[in-house]
Amino acid sequence: MSHSRKPFKISATRRKLIFGGTTALGTMAVIGNQALNSHQVKANENQTLTQRSPIRSANGRFNGKVVLITGATSGMGRTAAELFAREGAKVMFCGRRENLGKQVEATIRNNGGEATYMRADVRDPKQVEAFVKATIQKYGRLDIAYNNAGIGRVPGFGRIHEMTTEHWQELNSTNYDGVFYSMKYELQQMLKQKSGVIINKASTLGLVALPNVGAYVSSKHGVVGLTKAAALEYATQGIRVNAIAPGPIETTFLNQFVNPVDTQLYQQVSNSIANKVPLKRWGQPEEIANVALFLADEEASFLNGHIMVVDGGMAAHEGSAAEDRL
């Protein structure tokens, strides 16, 4: 069935273009004028996540395991670091924001976990190599790597012929090249061990596309392809490689697009995104972290080359174009 559509437009003043990066959405929502009149969505009590103790478990399922996480100074990466540590893992994580990294390290250690922060920029292969080597020097091995680092918003949204080379390079050097550099050095260690699990952070926009964000779409499609290729290359050498493709995840990412002081507009945009999710709510960082823990566990020992979509049912919508689903 064909659908008539109004031309796609970007309005910086109304923040109509919103899409996810490593610290939050992991997807895109196109907000039209009608979105600003959407009714408020209230989460039901049964939609609220059970609060769990941050204290390290004496019988954690990752006791003795070494976990490396990129981009874990905030958002979904930080939550994953805390959960892996709570389950007994020794966590080595990086990020560019040193103050936040030290805070996360202190929080984990204060709760009885083991974690070490190292400043590293995944856009620089030498820094990535040094980060992986430091992990081995500190903890002796590498069992699980969660390549979470990525970005979703830089100046220069627009059609491909209008895109600046700086915009293209900024997104792809972080979201795609950074994953390649990380895997390159992680795999070298895992091949020596003849074992390991790699989890890459993709996006629902690694599976579908939207206009005016070609660089982001391209970078996440690249992560999906690289994940599948690696899964095939190393399957017989004790190494599994999978990826997570998140939908809208509630962190501070929305603050970059809508000033939280403008509470009415902020709530309207937030509700509009929630309304596009069949579960009628945003996902929580812990819900993505829990999937990472599952993929890393022996419970998922037959999962390889899989892209785990975690989007509240958005991708299950029938037919129609991506902008209707997202």
UniProtKB/TrEMBL annotation:
Assigned keywords, A-Z: Oxidoreductase
UniProt keyword annotation of Iron present: no
Top-level enzyme category: oxidoreductase
Domain of life of the organism encoding this protein: Bacteria
Stretches of the chain forming a coiled coil according to its record: none
Record carries keyword Oxidoreductase: yes
Family membership noted in the UniProt record: Belongs to the short-chain dehydrogenases/reductases (SDR) family.
This protein's name: Glucose 1-dehydrogenase
Organism ancestry: Bacteria, Bacillati, Cyanobacteriota, Cyanophyceae, Nostocales
